[in-house]
Predict the structure.
Amino acid sequence: MGTSVQVTPLSGVYNENPLSYLVSIDGFNFLIDCGWNDLFDPSLLQPLSRVASTVDAVLLSHPDTLHLGALPYAMKQFGLSASVYSTEPVYRLGLLTMYDQYLSRKQVSEFDLFTLDDIDSAFLNVTRLTYSQNHHLSGKGEGIVIAPHVAGHLLGGTVWKITKDGEDVIYAVDFNRRKEKHLNGTVLESFVRPAVLITDAYNALNNQPPKQQKQRDRDFIDTISKTLEAGGNVLLPVDTAGRVLELLLVLEEHWSLKSLNFPIFFLNYVASSTIDYVKSFLEWMSDAIAKSFETSRDNAFLLKHVTLLISKNELDKTPDGPKVVLASMASLEAGFSHNIFVEWAADVKNLVLFTERGQFGTLARMLQADPPPKAVKVMMSRRAPLVGEELIAYEEEQSRLKREEALKASLIKKEESKASHLPDTSSTDPMVIDANNKHPSLDGQYGSGYRDILIDGFVPSSTSAAPMFPFYENTSDWDDFGEVINPDDYVIKDEDMDQAAMHIGDDINGKLDEGSASFILDTTPSKVISNELTVQVKASLIYMDYEGRSDGRSVKSILAHVAPLKLVLVHGSAEATEHLKQHCLNHVCPHVYAPQIEETIDVTSDLCAYKVQLSEKLMSNVLSKKLGDYEIAWVDAEVGKTENGMLSLLPISTPAPPHKSVVVGDLKMADFKQFLASKGVKVEFAGGALRCGEYVTLRKVGFTSHKGGGSGTQQIIIEGPLCEDYYKIRDYLYSQFYLL
């Protein structure tokens, strides 16, 4: 029997809800993604609450709310305490995303689901891995290896590969095949025939042929330019630190090329921190960005045409006139984008440009309907300082709470002091004085409440009923390093917080902008004032696809190439999920699953894996060939057993029968084209074939997989006359493979 694998969706199946899945491999429980949506509905997390205590490790795939938004809440409320793994950008940008989410809501509501401390605590012990780094788990996870690989959707976005006993479980959601300005495409196609592939059906029905990147960018800029030239403003509701990075580069490049003077603003609570971190993540970006930095030290995110803002007041102070504002949140449920939309929606000259589909149930999704609504009801909230009777009542309440706390602390201290002087009734010390014994001679002018006792020549016991003279013993605890201190003695009092706020630097621990930090430490009593408005939507509403996900046709092509033994579909509408399920049953593999919430499916491999020992006598006659990081060889052997009962491969006793030659390798025509060009061969693609020189043509025929998941035969055909070029090209072709 192969490695035992069970998959249990906790959220995000047959719908577009946040992603969260429990994957158990030989009893070791992985929580892969821990997402929430911009509505922050706790009811979505009920399935997670029931299994959080059983999780052994958490794997995060992308730095946005849909993939990691519930992590602080789950650790605070559900007792989730497992180790967390991610790439460095997912860790850093995910942290900033959660800061932005918290600050956006705290400004307009009494948000109490989690705090900044909860966010810091959740991200405190994240283990950061680099792409393709194999991390070996220990303890309960002994023998399991995890490795992140490029997903191509967000910076640091991950396709997770989990390996146990030679079998691979691949988790690949929200991947992108195409290269973009700041990201390379996914490497998912490099995995062939994994035991289990878990992927999403989010874009399964999106079969519109994608535009070329240059044409898409040109249309994007033209749409914005027309609005600006007509005197209107452009609002782009964006995420905190995800797809907005691609948009910033597109705007920056075209503003430089066309010498446009319209201002561009990137507005969220952590804007400057986000760009500062992104500048240091060039090695995680596209080859073009990395190469540009290596040759000219030109950092793509040294933005010359984009101004970073962290408050709405800063935007309000900018000169009047057409402008472009990229503001969070993309859902329009909270953040600066919500307020700006309410201000700009009534002007017919303005444009709200959506670059991704809004989350289900949000204002952005409502506005993306066809046709869009002419009026929407929105809740406008703001914080206002308390004044008059409200302020007096607040201060009285705070004073009462402080008095209660002081009284409680005083009583606790008195009880502790009293306990330290009580007699130890179990003591057999002969010097213990009976507290019930009356001493009339000592009761004189001092009364019976306090007695000074003198015992000449003896040191009184610590359990005496009364101290020797007015003496109080120091009962401080000591260890090998000195006196043990009480941390409470060093807690900063509330009245000292205002003074501490005056000494804030540029950020807190290098994570928050100055304005955001000031808001956090602002202890001015305030209240939230809310009122419902009806907004007349006269501004233009346009959607342009900058989601950075593979379309339905690409997804199907990739799945056919990967050809998993078993396929699990998650995260997509019911219609998209069923459509992709039927397609994969017909063209990818016979074992396709689409489980419901909390439905556990067993996707244990049907293969049988055995551990065998290679005997020294066998290996001494094996000729290995180097293949990347590995060595390969053809072995003829028979199975035996060692003295301790372990299976072993032994040399066969009779001459080995002849075998057909095996060609090892997977040739990509694009790579071979570059190889031939480096050898001086004139080469080009024409009609799906590779033209080499004047006479020779190479073409691939056959399929990588058939229905049922079996490997198909793939052939490379060389066509052309038997000339010098023909044999030279053939030799170059053979050099790309290994012959066993």
About this structure: Residues 136 and 535 are 55 Å apart (CA to CA). The chain is about 30% helix and 20% strand. The longest helix spans residues 388-421. The first strand starts at residue 5 and ends at 11.
